[in-house]
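Researcher: Next sequence.
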Amino acid sequence: MSHPVQVSILERSRLALIQAGDRLPPQKTWRVQAKRWLTHLRHPPATDNLELEVHRKNQLLAVSSVSLGTAVAGIALVQPWLSLTGMLLALSTFGPTFRGALHTLQNERRIDNQVLDATRLLLCLALRYDFILTLNALLQATSQKFFTQSQAEFNKEIESLEWVAEADRETVRQILLDAAGVLSIPQQRGQAGIRQMAPWMLASFVLTLPWLGVNRAAAFLTTGFGAHLNTLGPFTVRKTLLAAAQQGILVKDTHVLETAAQMDTLVIDAQVLADAAARASLSAAVDALRAHRPQFSHPLSVYCLLDNDDTFLPLLDQIDCAVAVSAGSAEKRLSFLQTLQQSGRSICYIGAASEEDGEDDSALLSCTTVAVAWRSSTALAHSPAQVHLMEGDLTALAHFVDLASNYSRTQRFNLQTPIGFDWADIGTTVFIHLGLVYSILFNYAGLATAALYARRPQRAAQNATAAPSSAAAAPSSAAVAAQP
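Model: Next structure:
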């Protein structure tokens, strides 16, 4: 048992410590913020791999910013050790570039864009181009942060889609992620272009080195000639898939985006017309599709595959210039579609996607240019349809064609614009005597221009909300549908 005197002494000591703590000066705000920032860098709050990757990109951006500031301070204060410190910090951001270049040289025995980048970085390090190296690090870290953040936002937007049922959410998420990972045709062309041009650019650097000098000749090492498609291609795909999903359109195959704008024939299963909402939206969808085809010499042809009982034949009166085709069996329907294909038609087939006739739809959907499933089925992941109209609104088909047209234009822009900046870089380097720093700015200016242009799918999706009313008010075409 404690003595009362001891308790009193302990109590007085505790009160003295509290009073001493109250007299201490408060901790400064900037110190608290710096401590929190360092703790955040060491221990990221992320929970999945993509958020961890975003956190690593934030770290690289912070390090590259510090490296550029340190290098500029060293140049301004004429302190070589500061510039050297900035360069060493910048090199920590180029680890993947050096590893990729070494892997390409050792395992694949070829020269690609990463080999050109690694050569340029080693030249900057050897010649003490402090500002150029640190500026390159900052621009690269900024672009990587931007594209990684867009991928994380894509995942979050998938989770917030309102039309997705909770039971199908993981299936829809996996479908969109798989579709976003497919290489587009422009991206494949970009990769082929850099494989062809990279050895020539390295040879140009070596040959022009005695004539132009290192600073100017190194501009050939900044040219990508399609290398930016490795980031711009998936970025554009994600923007388009998300814009379509926000309109209730689930795109399972991104290759269909490259051909959907060319379709000239619409074939509809009569079972679709059994739904009153589908009948009401089909006429507006056909009018909108025909209004979007002014550049073609012939109008959109519309066919409806009827069963033997011709129950839905009177419903075609609501659709201008629709042709009824009696095809009660799967063999007759396949034969009709094959006849259309042999005549050079680009077919968009809209199937009912019901569980009872799923096998028939599978055979029909697999032999068309664009396979559309009206509404969804329980076997969503295994459906052969490339596009699912999840809300059963056929007017969404016109929005899909708009997005596909915009997607094709954007991917062409992604391929052509950076290459145009590369040629401008080469021309200014050879004839106007610009140096390496300008070449790096040219290179990332092309990337930034294409990235801003790639946001068009979202704007197109926003503008599409006003399209149904105007399309419904427009008069339908009077041209007769051409026979196959």
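Model: The first strand starts at residue 249 and ends at 251. Residues 43-160 form one domain.
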